[in-house]
Design brief:
By secondary structure, the protein is of the alpha/beta class. It is built from 9 helices and 13 strands.
Length: 299
Amino acid sequence: MTQRMNRELPAEKVGHGDHLCLVFGDDAEKRRVATRYMTDGLALGERILYFTDQSSPEAVRGWLHAARVDVGEACARGRLQVVAARDSYLASGRFDPDAMIQTLYDEVRRSLDDGHTGLRVTGEMGWALRGMPGAELLPEYEKMITEVFAGNPASAVCHYDARLFGPDELAVFDHCHPLKVELTPLHGHGALRIVPAFQDGRRALRVIGSVDLQTTDLLAEALRTARSWPGDIRVDMSALEFIDLTGLRLLARTADSLGDGRILKVEHLPEMLRKVIRLAGLDRSPAFVVSPSGEVPPS
């Protein structure tokens, strides 16, 4: 099966017309992304509209206060609106995608009429798991949002908590977005970047750049972090530039150490490196699974 890859953007690079999916596994990451997205928008003169679910409106305003935003002034001037989803577009007791799409069009127009440079919408989507009538239409709605913001001075980031949504559900919503938010790199400097990600709803490590004598320890540290995640470890090598034999041995040793039937899956590895693994005898463990470029082993 060919994996679908939607482009990742750091929160600080979101611009007009963008519609992104944020899949996160901890509250600190959600807060970091949401705070950066909102503060950048305020600095650009855009209006912020945040729909809460797991978080309270007070908590979200607290994030901004901690980021030295004058929250009272922003709210008073209409630059910031933080409201619970249940008190806004879910107040009728059901989810109506068509009505919500019209609301978004109206909010874009209102933002421009009031002198703002654009609109940033962000929302927590956990309500979709609580049996709300119309929630089954959420994937269709997510696809419609892309059309709302395309060509308009507006953007949206939709929050999906991996602790609430299952991998298959996350994959569906991920594929409804043309973009996704890049999570905070575990290592993001020099010749190697290692970025945690959710791909097709499952956690992964994206290795970008070169693994060599200078950077093997960074990969080892990232793999130790990944061992604390539930399930198998996926390592996406689609952006790998180079890896030496020491790095390949590290991957094999990590796989051997997992236990409990867990597997380390190395994805998108060039055929030449797969041959090196075979010649070095590193492919003997059933816990070490390697796939060629453009192919992903079944989950």
